[in-house]
Amino acid sequence: MLNIVLFGPPGAGKGTQSENLITKYNLVHLSTGDIFRSNIKGETELGKKAKAFMDKGELVPDSVTISMLESEVEKYPNAKGFIFDGFPRTSAQAQALDQFLTSKNTSITCMLALEVEETELIARLLNRAKTSGRADDADVNIVRNRITVYNRETAPVAEFYKKQDKYRGIYGIGSVEEISNRLFDAINAVVLN
Ligand code: B4P
Q1: Is the pTM of this model over 0.90?
Q2: Per-residue pLDDT tens for 10-21?
Q3: CB 27 within 8 A of CB 2
Q4: Is ligand 1 within 6 A of the CB of residue 129?
Q5: Which of 44, 157, 164, 182 is found 20 to 30 A from 189 (Cα to Cα)?
């Protein structure tokens, strides 16, 4: 299986690039942000729990997020592989994912980390707010909080994959197509290695 963690700060292009990766490699796309948003729209219990955190730019608690992700993976027993978009976002999530995949006789192939500086992230998210209707994109203070939370809780997750020699940093500025090509090159280098 080809199992990719697509990593990066809010607005780095994870959701955007996932679309090109799933088409090229025929993978299942699991975006925890998208799953939460569809639960919020459907007014489920999970959605109600997640909304309070997401609207403030905080992470949804691990206890909710990990079990949700695992049950999503279970829905695709015949998948050729997965793109984990926005997961793991904490060290506890990374450990849980490793254990869960081991129990399925598989593992993460690599972490692809989109690297984009903060001013560009803020500009992208405020621009997306014009069309996304997302409360967490619309307010610059919430956007900044998301980046602060990323630096504090999520950035350390990279170390987990660096220790396993699975981390690949990808320059995330340029056209969507240019960045996709950088991601394809990185995946091909890992797979052919
Ligand atoms: P996510 O939905 O993962 O949202 P995100 O970090 O904003 O990234 P996204 O993938 O949507 O945006 P992209 O960078 O593609 O998370 C939202 C919230 O959900 C979190 O804050 C948290 O509360 C919660 N959550 C999710 N997962 C969780 C977890 N595991 N644990 C706990 N809580 C969790 O794109 C951004 C913008 O940039 C777009 O407008 C796009 O068009 C633009 N863009 C992309 N590529 C570009 C390029 N090359 N040049 C210019 N613009 C570009």
Answers
A1: yes
A2: 999 999 999 999
A3: yes
A4: no
A5: 157
